[in-house]
Amino acid sequence: MRIAYLFLNGELKGDKEFFIDFLKENKGDLYCADGGANLCYELGLIPKEVWGDLDSIKREVKEYYLEKKVLFKEFKPEKDYTDTELILEEIYKKYEKIFCIGGLGGEIGHELSNINLLSKYEKMIFLTEKEKLFKVERSLMKDYKFQNMKDKKISFIPLTSEVMINFLKGFKYETGEIYIKKYQARLMSNIIIKDEAILSLETGELLCVIEN
């Protein structure tokens, strides 16, 4: 499986050793969107490429990566897409999973904007020490299986105006058919209690938040 790591200009939200160990266990290519290079540098890592208008990257970080022959792709500040979207459009088809580090925290507008990108880029997984955030949608599969995650806390948040779930099995709070509107918070703080838990989704998209 081809994996990419995309560093964004938010916060690490976790201990440095967690991310270093995770990257060692799940090897992949490293990319940075502008100030995300600062986080990559904090972890002592060398990215493959850095994209953006480069207004957020620290001077010493840029100089260090230039010495290391890292490829920089610079764009004008006045553009139709964010730095994150620019790099996602380039790398998205090349990888099966894209873990985003530094996508949460920092400015709330950036954080919400990043989460909103899941509606288009379903391969993205936001990674922090405490949790992973990703999208589940009916067009990918009807039954989504959570395996070997017993005792993990999990929440589902509607991303579309309406969501129809056929059933939840293997969770502390199981359901049969349930219809949810976007403004309803009915699927928060559940617990996986079986070695295999199943979410059967009929229509719509959900943001899944599961603890590490």
Quote the average pLDDT. Answer: 92
Portion in helices: 10-25%
Query: What's the β-strand tally?
Result: 14
Please trace the helix and strand order, writing H or E for each element. EHEHEHEHEHEEEEEEEEE
Largest sheet: 10 strands, mixed
Major sheet: arrangement of strands: 4-3-2-1-5-6-7-14-9-12
Distance between the termini: 21 Å
Morphology call: elongated
The portion of residues forming beta strands comes to 25-35%
Uncertain spans: none
The Rg value, from CA coordinates, equals 18 Å
SSE class: alpha/beta
Q: DSSP helix count? A: 5
Describe the structure.
The protein is α/β, with parallel strands linked by helices and 212 residues long. 21% of the residues lie in helices and 35% in strands. The protein is built from 5 helices and 14 strands. A 10-stranded mixed sheet has the order 4-3-2-1-5-6-7-14-9-12. A 4-stranded antiparallel sheet has the order 8-13-10-11, with no helix packed on it. The radius of gyration is 18 Å and the shape is elongated. 27% of the residues are buried. The model has no long low-confidence stretch (mean pLDDT 92).
